[in-house]
Amino acid sequence: MAPIPSFSLLLLLFAFAFPSSSSATTRKLSALEQQPLLKYHNGPLLKGNITVNLVWYGKFSSTQRSVIVDFLSSLSLSSPKTTSPHSVSSWWQTTGKYRGGSSSVVVGKQILDEKYSLGKALKTSQLKALALKAGYGHGKAVNVVLTSADVAVDGFCMSRCGTHGSVRVKKSMFPYAWVGNSASQCPGYCAWPFHQPIYGPQTPPLVAPNGDVGVDGMVINLATVLAGTVINPFNNGYFQGPAEAPLEAVSACTGIFGKGAYPGYPGEVLVDKTTGASYNAVGINGRKYLLPAMWDPQTSTCKTLS
Q1: Where does this protein chiefly localize (predicted)?
Q2: What is the band of 84 on the pLDDT scale with cuts at 50, 70, 90?
């Protein structure tokens, strides 16, 4: 099966590339928030207990790894401290409004490949091979490959910031995902709004909540592909548009992080009084994150946390 690109910023960048059509783009985004776009294509979804296994490809610091692991570990927290609308778990709960109900996420295996076993330029087929390093066939699991800032991947920074798809092993299909660190390759494309955009007005970027533009950008794209994996794991779940390039739960709400968002403006978000960092969700260990809006199938809106 062909990989499914993450298009969480594509419409936004098109708006930058063609400034004269910005009002039309705004109208399209407004319509997006009012119309039920995601059609169910009768395929299986990932629900219940899901294990996310991680393959770290390249060099990541322990701090970088902890930012991402803490995000994943925050998705299914249910303690009183996470009942706030500004919690990571509240953001994830929107996936439970799709057919089949809620899913809980736990972090499973973590594989370190710091010696670049397949080199520093990867094809999609190699991403799938790396994903299988975390194993397969044991319950509901998603193997996620995370590539460091010095690793190039086919299509990275040109048409995608992350991918999710599936790998066939014998007669079974297993979901996988990939997200790259764009810090040195295309932060204006894959780490917006923490970096000035490639196109359009060069407005000041937001301050990354964990002080790492590349990794905070990875969280946005990981959130995008993970939500897409849950509602469309095998290319026949919930999506709009062509199956080879679908709009899914988060990519259907491109560029929206808070109320009042429009192309080039992420919307109203919270700002840390001490660091000046922008965020809209809090997770374990007091971690702050900026998470994209997700399509709510019950209200037919792009739901934001702020």
Answers
A1: secreted
A2: low
